[in-house]
Amino acid sequence: MTAPDFFPHPEPTQSYWLTHEDDLANHRTTEELPQEADYVVIGSGYAGTTSAYYLLKDEKFRPSTVILEARSACSGATARNGGHLKPDCYLSFWTYAKMFGPRTAAQLINHEIKHLKEIKKLVEEENIDCDFHLTRAIDVFLDERVSVPTIQAYREMVKAGYLDTSDIEFWANPKEAEQVSGMKDALCAFSFTAGHIWPYKFIMHLLRRAVEWGANLQTNTPVTTLSEKPDAEGRWTVTTPRGTIRAKNVVIATNAYTAGIMPEFKDKIVPVRGIAAHIAVPEGQRPPHLNNSYAVRFGPKQYDYMVVRADGSVVVGGAKQKVLLSDSNWENVTDDSKLIEGADEYFDGYMQRHFNGWEDSGATTTKIWTGIMGYSKDFMPFLGRMPGKRGIWLNTGFTGHGMPRILLSSVALAGLMKGEVDDLSHTDIPWPFWATEERIRSTESVVQSYMAGDKHNGEKKN
Ligand SMILES: Cc1cc2nc3c(=O)[nH]c(=O)nc-3n(C[C@H](O)[C@H](O)[C@H](O)COP(=O)(O)OP(=O)(O)OC[C@H]3O[C@@H](n4cnc5c(N)ncnc54)[C@H](O)[C@@H]3O)c2cc1C
């Protein structure tokens, strides 16, 4: 395996979401880089953009802010994801309970659920044209190795009583599960409230607002180094090929690429490559009706996720059965210019294979792309002050599941930066998100064992 360089690849694949390029895509607010700023935000994805948005939202406090983006605006994981805003409202409960205790597990889940209403509210307040839909997600299990333990774990979770499960519906009978989900060979299914969105349009709208509120956006400007220490005036030096900026505060929103500018995060946030596709029926034809979003579980850690767009086309990602065949497909990979061998053909005939009524639909893959996620070693993002580095703020490492986690993280981070709260313990951010020294120092990682499923027993396979 070649070591990643931790910088975004200059020529990424094009995702379906990026087919409607925003006119801010290659924006530079000023021709030259400012030499100084109160805040430099590195990264213009969901985390960087919402950090800047909430930092600048209040017109009484508008510090000078520069947003630096290595490629075009919002061209990382946010613009390459599945568009699924899906709280993990039962599946990871016992994993989290084992890691952090059952009350914290419930807090983590409730924090995700809260995002649905908050994002809906924001989309409505801002009148964002981003195809936001509140829907039901259906998790469908096609293999007994996952259906049986999940049903048992779910029942135990309900009995333990830490969570309000009134929004979750559950079918353990295969016939009912197939009927409700429309999926062939379903063994059981769960459904609950979720959402889906055009993530690029959502974030580009908020980025435009931040620019209107005074942010200086500089795209195609990679940060190559961040000084190890601040200078005598307490300013950090942010170096790019176009010059340096001295900044009192720096927000790290670089997700998978964080170790590129902060070596402390090597092996703490691991770049993981994922793949997704857009599937549609031929133009002029009507797609068979589907109105839920999906997660499909084919075996341990072998899953896909899928959203159904209002035009009846779908965006589906995962292909884990193929991706996980070799660690070199996904682990420590920052290259989103290439597809994943084997996974590229995986989506051909996908709807016909798995969904009743789609056999003669003629549905084909219209777009396929890869993207790089930032998996943190304990699945939790790093949020808040960087310990020992005054003025460095973290909002990074969202582990392939940022949609229902980032917005409220950015709200809390902005509150900290503006001095409205002095510590994340005074917010409703679950403590596993806090960027503590202990977490950053720890060498333990659950990423390999989590991703591996039943593929191998702790051995690496290359
Ligand atoms: C294929 C795929 C499918 C996914 N599906 C889902 C899903 O359905 N639901 C869900 O919840 N999550 C999903 N995710 C994960 C989700 O997209 C991420 O959690 C989320 O977008 C992370 O946002 P971010 O802003 O932290 O990272 P990013 O969007 O990656 O933004 C980081 C930005 O920082 C920039 N950057 C990095 N280094 C530098 C540097 N040195 N200088 C300047 N700029 C830099 C990058 O270019 C990038 O634009 C998926 C991810 C992928 C790849």
End-to-end Cα distance: 8 Å
Radius of gyration: 21 Å
Low-confidence stretches: 454-462
Task: Count every helix, treating DSSP H or I runs of 4 or more residues as helices.
Answer: 12
CATH class of the largest domain: Alpha Beta
| CATH architect. name of the largest domain | 3-Layer(bba) Sandwich
InterPro entries: FAD-dep_OxRdtase, FAD/NAD-bd_sf
Pfam family, one: DAO
Organism: Xylona heveae (strain CBS 132557 / TC161)
Protein name: FAD dependent oxidoreductase
How does this model look, in words?
- This protein has 462 residues and is of the alpha/beta class.
- The protein has 2 domains: 16-80 and 200-268 and 378-444, FAD/NAD(P)-binding domain, CATH 3.50.50; 131-197 and 271-376, D-Amino Acid Oxidase, subunit A, domain 2 (D-Amino Acid Oxidase, Chain A, domain 2, 2-Layer Sandwich).
- 26% of the residues lie in helices and 23% in strands.
- It has 12 helices and 17 strands.
- The protein has helices at residues 46-56, 93-100, 102-126, 144-160, 174-181, 199-212, 320-323, 327-330, 350-354, 406-417, 437-441, 447-452; strands spanning 36-42, 65-68, 84-85, 133-141, 169-171, 188-196, 216-218, 225-226, 236-240, 243-252, 269-280, 293-299, 302-308, 314-317, 364-376, 382-385, 392-396.
- Strands 3, 4, 5, 6, 11, 12, 13, 14 and 15 form a 9-stranded mixed β-sheet that branches. Strands 1, 2, 7, 8, 9, 10, 16 and 17 form an 8-stranded mixed β-sheet that branches.
- Strand 1, helix 1 (46-56) and strand 2 (65-68) form a beta-alpha-beta unit.
- Helix 1 crosses helix 10.
- The longest helix has 25 residues, at 102-126.
- It starts with 35 loop residues before the first strand and ends in a 10-residue tail after the last helix.
- Bound molecules: flavin-adenine dinucleotide (FAD).
- Flavin-adenine dinucleotide binds next to helix 1, strand 11 and strand 15.
- Flavin-adenine dinucleotide (FAD) is lined by residues 7-8, 42-48, 68-71, 75-78, 80-84, 222-223, 253-257, 260-261, 274-276, 305, 317, 371-373, 396, 398, 400-404, 406.
